[in-house]
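Contributing new complexes? Match this layout with NAP.
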Amino acid sequence: MAATLMDGKALAARIREDVAREVKAFGRPIGLATVLVGDDPASDVYIRLKHKASLEVGIDARDLRLPATTTQEELLALVAELNADDAVDGILVQLPLPDGLDERRVINAIDPLKDVDGIHPLNAGLLLAGTPGHVPGTPLGVLELLDEYEVQLHGANAVVIGRSDIVGKPVALLLLQRHATVTICHSRTRDLAAETSRADVVVAAVGVAGIVQPGMVKEGAAVIDVGITRTDAGIVGDVAPEVAARAGFLTPVPGGVGPMTIALLLKSTVRAARYRSGSLAHPGV
Ligand code: NAP
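Output block (do not edit by hand):
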């Protein structure tokens, strides 16, 4: 039987409608500042999509672009300025930064209340502690999709492929929080297929097209494809299309996790505004 396709586009559209209502009802404008350093074409596409979506829900989005020659001090000065700017609720520094800029120092400089990407060490630590504040959008989107399709997580075997700070690790922690038994795989994992083939839930966040093949997936498993690889034929994911014949649930690429990431960023921006206005307590401040 073919897998049920998990429609991230439709769910993201519903989330965006909810966010638009919340923005309208908030009582003051909600602001998001994005910072793009350099001219990486993929980052440019992501920033454009984020801005379009922000404006559609009524968020005041500020698109800040800096040349690739920007120094560490100039970038830190801009972050400090945005931290101090009352009209800015959320700050998103698009990664990766050009060579020569220290990502960690920049991330550490962002006000944790405004850290809508959930990558400041305070927010990362709060997630680890089981009391999350801001959480990165992609992992939140993955969990929303699993919930939407009522995939059982409690007691399930979940395998996450990838251990980045922005996707793999936070997804694994969110699944753990929901009482899944979680295995994190990465490039040094000895036998990936042995790990994935006993999983009820597989989350692939690698960036290697087709790394998840049908023989690696248990019949009926839920398979979430986070990966993005650009090919001449368009964007493809980490999961081979033939997996649809074995999986119970599968996210399409495009139209699965991608739209969810953007919708959850908008939701996090409203959350940042609530933290800053005091209507919601940030667990770490
Ligand atoms: P990343 O930082 O490059 O991490 C990739 C992870 O995959 C690493 O942990 C790496 O292991 C692991 N890996 C690499 N080769 C492997 C292999 N052969 N077997 C098992 N694991 C392997 O990437 P990321 O930022 O997490 O993003 C992952 C993918 O998701 C990318 O394609 C990215 O474009 C995509 N993405 C999509 C969205 C969306 O909205 N759809 C959002 C964010 C990212 P090591 O740690 O050992 O190197």
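Reviewers usually confirm one structural detail per submission. For this one: The longest strand covers residues 31-37.
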